[in-house]
Amino acid sequence: MSISTSLRSELLKSKRRASIYLTLIAAAVVPIIFILDATVDGISPENGPTIFNKIFSEGFKISSFIIIPMFIILISTLLPQIEYKNNAWKQVLASPQTKANIFIAKYINLHLLFLLFIVANHLMMLGAGVVLHFVHPSLNLLNQSVDIDSIFVNILNTYVALLAITTAQFWMGLRFKNFIAPLAIGISLWIMGSILVIQFDSKIAAYFPYSAHIYVSFPQFKPKLNTVEWASGLYTVAFLILGFLDFKTRAVKS
Q: Of 76, 112, 148, 164, which is most buried by a Cβ count within 10 Å?
């Protein structure tokens, strides 16, 4: 059985679960906050001429600091748990597909949901701008320019910097039968990573995968972003190799 067939199987499982809904709900959080804030509290006059760009820049900052890490920890942990929840590991492993195909298909499925989150989030931010245009027509939002290059750079930096967290949580989701353990570990490490950078400005924080979200969120920390991305890439390769070897050699029980 090919990887494409295994991937189609994983996509079907995701459609039957809450994964898609969780992705779309998470993507909608920040745009809804912007709409509610601008509708209830209004828009400051000095922000009017640049509000469309600020919707994307400030929305990105909030999403990459809180929403995206939490989404990654949740979805990376819950997706591999489908077989545990359904007591279906024996059936999956008995099917005519290799463990390598199963592992890779689940990992690709995870990243497809991550990409869906990014696309949905930015489309919803654009939708928030359209809504605000009609709520505050005097601002003429739809005729304001948008810094597309900056948006794409932020997306790329976020994706690369958070690869290590995604892979580590994916491994833990496969490793632990109880989803509470990887979830608790992931949230604890995320909090620890945030404290290392914000509170202590630690020199080792740039090499700690669960600190990466800080470096893509706040401009004052971006000078170290290149180091963070290289470290994330190396961690990703290491976690993938170790995760696959663990999955391949371990007798996974339902």
A: 76
Q: What are the backbone dihedrals phi and psi of residue 123, each rounded to the nearest 5 degrees, phi first?
A: -65, -40
**Are the beta carbons of 204 and 196 closer than 8 angstroms?**
yes
* Tens of pLDDT, residues 41-94: 666 555 555 677 777 878 888 888 889 999 999 888 888 777 776 666 667 666
Position 184 scores a pLDDT of 92
Q: Are 134 and 127 in contact (CB under 8 A)?
A: no
Is residue 169 scored above 80 in pLDDT?
yes
Q: How far apart are CA 127 and CA 121, in angstroms?
A: 10
Angstrom distance (rounded) from CA 224 to CA 206? 7
At residue 138 the predicted structure's pLDDT band, cuts being 50, 70 and 90, is confident
For 132, residues 6+ apart whose C-beta sits below 8 A from its C-beta are 34, 35, 38, 39, 43, 51, 55, 139, 141
Residue whose C-alpha is closest to residue 132's, from 30, 43, 249: 43
Q: Check the CA dihedral 124-149-60-193 and report its sign.
A: positive
Amino acid at 203: K
Cβ atoms < 10 Å from Cβ of 183:
20
